[in-house]
Design goal:
Radius of gyration: 27 Å
Helix content: 25-40%
Number of helices: 1
Shape: elongated
Distance between the termini: 78 Å
Length: about 55
């Protein structure tokens, strides 16, 4: 009986500590200016390293 109480207390402390430190935080606001975008016109079998470029359509 005593060991069950100790284990239950330990589990409560572990989950309580986890719940205390894992609180949600507020998400930062989006900036007004986005520093850049990435664009790659290459398809699955195209690569600039293999000299297989997109067709000019």
């Amino acid at each position: 009986m005593h060991i069950v109480s100790v284990v239950a207390l330990f589990i409560s402390i572990v989950f309580g500590t986890y719940a205390y430190f894992n609180q949600p935080i507020e998400e930062p606001a989006w900036p007004d200016d986005i520093p850049g975008f990435a664009f790659s016109p290459y398809q699955k079998d195209q690569s600039p390293f293999l000299n297989k470029f997109p067709t000019p359509e």
